[in-house]
Amino acid sequence: MTEAAIADAARSVFVASGARPVDPAYIMRSDIPLELSGEAVRARLCVFTDNRGNEMVMRPDLTLPVAGMEAERLAAGGSGPAAYCYAAEAFRLPAAPDDPMEFTQAGFERFGLNSTPYEDAEAFALVHEAVAACDVKPMSIATGDLAVFPAFVDALGLPRVTADLLKRAFRQEGGVRALLETAPLPIEDDFVPVLEAASPEAAETAFQAALNARGIPLIGTRSVSEIVSGLRARAAAQAAGGVPDAVRSVIGALAAVNCSAGEAADQLDAIAVRFRLSKASPAIDRVARRMELIRDMLPDLKAICQFRSGFGRRFTYYDGFLFETLGANLTDRQPIASGGRYDGLVAGLSNGRANATAIGGIIRPDRVLRAKGRGA
To answer: What contacts 24+ positions apart, CB below 8 Å, involve 150-153?
Structure first.
């Protein structure tokens, strides 16, 4: 099969499921992916300035613009579930030296269906039906659930500022470890105005002024608003007593969960029982039920499915089940297929004017070719 034939085969599976083919705008305002994508993705965006001086970006994936279309439909008065599919180009700086900057994604996005383990498993099964249609064999599948860590944090009964700080740290690679291993430091005098500012805008202005006074350039992929928000949250958590040792033990146990997907619920439940966190049970039950359904739908894939508690954090707009399917001849950062749940994205894109559950998945035809032993 050629790359185009692979894309067509995958899209045909998604069309047969009832999804409507679309090809959304190639160009987006840069603030959309900058605010909603993780740091690892932001560093790979293809950003440019248009003739009016506005910063724009080539679509880094198809999920963002398709979710934007759905947000506009719902905000304009549309209602009911909707499903879309595509085989279209996306643009990102390569994750590996042999990856292209422009590549095709064949995928689907579903909105407005019940956010249940069945819908998670059904979306997973649909992606792997498309993988099978492309005549490629998965080597391993990494799965995770970005709702598990927040559920355990909520079950701990922490002050809200401390809980929010932990959740924020979780969404950054190495963030929780850095938070727990670094001794709390007092805020230096020239950054005190950042903490005392009456509004987020004033805090950002004070932070930028402190950087300018020190002659420090802003380097990296995190925005000023994110840095300021994190700084203020850290100070508030310290004022509330910081992170107790017992909480550190729970988080350490949770971070160590790295097992076959069939064992994940049992390992999570053992942590909840050990630390008496019964309020985490609904999230654990969802993990268990989802895997039961995946096993029933795709029994041949059970043996290659793994679960890791921290998997998927680099994709900021995802907030639930995630997976990446790996093939031969590729690294673990080059999945041939992936997908996940992002129930909060439509609300974020519409500034709260619309809301819809959402889940989707994609296949990378260029990587499928390489997994087959062809292509670059």
So the answer is: 151/279, 151/280, 151/282, 151/283, 151/284, 152/250, 152/251, 152/254, 152/271, 152/272, 152/277, 152/280, 152/283
pLDDT digits (tens, 9 = 90+) for 56-100: 889 999 999 999 999 999 999 999 999 999 999 999 888 777 889
Work out the number of other CB atoms within 10 angstroms of the CB of residue 2.
11
**What pLDDT is recorded for position 31?**
78
Task: Please say whether the dihedral angle defined by the alpha carbons of residues 333, 338, 344 and 347, taken in this order, is positive or negative.
Answer: positive
Structure tokens at 27: 């160009």
For residue 313, the Cα-to-chain-centroid distance in whole angstroms is 6
User: What span, in angstroms and rounded, lies between the C-alpha atoms of 364 and 338?
Assistant: 9
For residues 361 and 141, the answer to whether their CB atoms sit within 8 Å is no
119 DSSP 8-state letter: H
Dump pLDDT digits (tens) for 335-351: 999 999 999 999 989 98
Positions of E strands within the chain: 20-21, 27-29, 47-49, 55-58, 82-91, 102-111, 140-145, 258-260, 305-308, 321-326, 337-341, 358-363
Using the 8-state DSSP alphabet, how is residue 92 labeled? B
* CB hemisphere CA count around 302 (13 angstroms): 14
Position 239 pLDDT exceeds 60: no
